[in-house]
Design brief:
Blueprint lengths: L1 E5 L2 E5 L6 H7 L5 E6 L2 E2 L2 E6 L4 E5 L5 E5 L2 E5 L4 E4 L5 E5 L4 E2 L2 E5 L41 E2 L5 H17 L4 H19 L5 H19 L5 H7 L4 H12 L3 H19 L4
Antiparallel strand pairs: 1-2, 3-12, 4-11, 5-10, 6-9, 6-12, 7-8, 7-10, 9-13
Helix pairs in contact: 2-3, 4-6, 5-6
Length: about 270
């Protein structure tokens, strides 16, 4: 915990544990939403084409046949698909219809370039004349692994956030683009979390571990035994669950917390 004093005002900032990878990605992302919707379509078909930006789709209802980068998918409720820029794809919704919330977006906002706004028609595969508008590749982040069908435990949660992006666009309130950008960052975080294959046991202990972190913040002198008892877990199982959740051992986490507390006292208290 870092603490700074300005006159009578004290500002406290608690670093989030296990956040190093997120910081590296955050340094590169500035999402920009170009177009989105919540359509309910009867039988439809979109011939092969390529895009200049990303297309994210969640199947809320219905069935279809998608082809992305020459790979064919039978589509059904709960499926999530990401089509990266310059990727060949075709989309088809089968009778009686499909509800498919979607969003076209850039991961990196580029002033003077990102503001193009037109639809790429079906059958358009040659993007040679539009290369200046093509979104740059994201090869230096884990996001490059996200394409085609996204298989994850939290697809439904991503789908709900996509719906919220579309709802925000429809409301058209001031600073809507700013909020949609934040929602896209939330989507990216959820998609990357889904790739970690954390499993049901992660969610089972998540609330208890959050309480443990609060306990450490208020009682940094706590022992690992006390923390394990607080979660009603054996010491060995607690260490395993904690390390999987936070990316470090309970002892290391305690050590960091105590050092942060010491720094705070040195910076913000009138102590000897």
């Amino acid at each position: 915990m870092y603490l700074y004093r300005f006159g009578a005002t004290t500002l406290i900032h608690d670093p989030v544990p296990g956040d190093d990878a997120a910081i590296a990605i955050l340094a590169q992302l500035r999402p920009y939403v170009r177009h989105c919707g919540l359509p309910r379509r009867l039988a439809w078909k979109l011939k092969r084409r390529k895009l200049l930006d990303y297309l994210l789709m969640y199947v809320d209802d219905g069935q279809g046949l998608f082809e992305i980068n020459h790979q064919c998918f039978e589509v059904s409720k709960g499926d999530l698909f990401l089509v990266p820029p310059n990727t060949l794809h075709s989309l088809e919704g089968l009778p009686p219809g499909m509800t498919c919330p979607y969003v076209h977006f850039d991961l990196v906002y580029r002033p003077g370039i990102s503001h193009w706004d037109f639809s790429i028609p079906a059958g358009m595969e040659d993007m040679e004349g539009l290369q200046n508008l093509m979104h740059p590749p994201m090869t230096s982040t884990p996001l490059v692994r996200l394409n085609g069908r996204i298989r994850a435990r939290n697809n439904a949660k991503v789908g709900e956030v996509i719906k919220e992006v579309a709802a925000e666009a429809a409301r058209a309130q001031p600073y809507a683009q700013l909020r949609m950008s934040g929602l896209m960052l939330e989507i990216m975080a959820e998609m990357l979390r889904g790739q970690q294959e954390l499993g049901a046991h992660f969610e089972e202990h998540a609330i208890s571990l959050e309480r443990v972190v609060e306990m450490i913040r208020h009682k940094p002198q706590a022992t690992v035994d006390e923390l394990a008892a607080h979660c009603n877990l054996s010491n060995s199982h607690f260490r395993k669950v904690f390390a999987r959740h936070f990316g470090c051992s309970p002892r290391e986490f305690l050590c960091r917390s105590r050092i942060r507390r010491a720094k705070s006292l040195m910076a913000g208290e009138n102590l000897t």
